[in-house]
Amino acid sequence: MRFSEIEESTIPRSPGVYVVCWVREDNVVPVPRILREDKAGIFYVGSAANLAERLRSLIKTIRMARGENEKPSKKHRHTLVLTLLYTGLAERISRKDLLVYYKTFTSKKEAEIQEALFLYEYTRLYGEPPPLNLKVGRQVLVILNLGVLGKSILAGELDPELTTPLTRS
């Protein structure tokens, strides 16, 4: 679903993972990465305790970043939007240029684990995290891959439905 359609939709208020991709005129915009081009155009991956609230909050912050009459607040300082501002992409990318996939889970913890597994898999495939996930550091990826002295808290595998954007590449 396009970001411009989020406000009118009935997004679940449950925990989940969301994947933001870049599109132009119904075509995915490939994103150059270190190891190979990301043909799915994945820009950002995040998790939330309440998907509906998070995605609507992102809409408000994108509007604010583009100067579209939204009043700034501390609540709307999301990494995705700060990164759009930092890179100058806020001026070039509109809400209609962003596509979002999401998957719900039963708990916030499960969503956070799936987000971390997605980021690990993306980084393994492309040699770096998605471009707007600037807060993902090497420490996080080392913990996911090797565990910290064998004490990694992550278990399980990436949900098959979340692999859809990755398999488009």
Can you give a write-up of this model?
With 169 residues, this protein is α+β, with helices and mostly antiparallel strands. It has a single domain (3-157), classed as GIY-YIG endonuclease, CATH 3.40.1440. The protein is built from five helices and four strands. Strands 1, 2, 3 and 4 form a four-stranded antiparallel β-sheet that branches. β1 (16-24) and β2 (27-28) form a beta hairpin. α1 packs parallel to α2 (79-87) and α3 packs across α4 (138-146). Residues 146-151 have low confidence and may be disordered.
Give me a quick take on this structure.
Helix content is 33%, strand content 15%. The chain has 169 residues and is of the alpha+beta class. Strand 1 and strand 2 form a beta hairpin.
